[in-house]
Amino acid sequence: MKVILTADVKSLGKKGEIVDVSDGYARNMLLPKKLGVEANAKNINDLKLQKANEDKVAKEILEQARALAADIAEKSITVSIKVGEGGKTFGSVSSKEIAEAAKAQINLELDKKKIQLPSPIRTLGVTMVPIKLHPKVTAELKVHVKEA
């Protein structure tokens, strides 16, 4: 019997896949537990429409991320840190501080986990900070680090 899985089933398949299982397994396990539905013409058509809708939504999210990346590339923020004698900095600028500065200065909510700093910024000047907005889109935010 062909069954469309409505949830991930270990050792059988992922949600949305059409699998061929024995009649007893489908009748006694998959269908009563709502892990799958019978793969008739109506259900297969519904699955195709659902996948098309998911693709459309994913495309819209990708376009929004690209637009946000273009907007971020034009903007910059300023963060200050303490500096001692000879230009030596005390402390560093972390992704949390960058996220807070972006919210305060350019009214942009950034998740600190999406800011991809290889290491905290410990020098004065301008640094380009990569921000992962989407698995396929990474924006660069210009961060000016100045003396406090």
UniProtKB/TrEMBL annotation:
GO terms for biological process: translation. Pfam families: Ribosomal_L9_C, Ribosomal_L9_N. One of its GO terms (molecular function) is rRNA binding. Residues 63-146 form the Large ribosomal subunit protein bL9 C-terminal domain. The keyword rRNA-binding applies. Residues 1-47 form the Ribosomal protein L9 domain. The keyword Zinc-finger does not apply. InterPro entries: Ribosomal_bL9 (IPR000244), Ribosomal_bL9/RNase_H1_N (IPR009027), Ribosomal_bL9_bac/chp (IPR020594), Ribosomal_bL9_C (IPR020069), Ribosomal_bL9_C_sf (IPR036791), Ribosomal_bL9_N (IPR020070), Ribosomal_bL9_N_sf (IPR036935). Keywords: Ribonucleoprotein, Ribosomal protein, RNA-binding, rRNA-binding. GO terms for cellular component: ribonucleoprotein complex; ribosome. Binds to the 23S rRNA. PANTHER family: 50S RIBOSOMAL PROTEIN L9. Belongs to the bacterial ribosomal protein bL9 family. This is Large ribosomal subunit protein bL9. It comes from Fusicatenibacter faecihominis. The lineage of its organism: Bacteria, Bacillati, Bacillota, Clostridia, Lachnospirales.
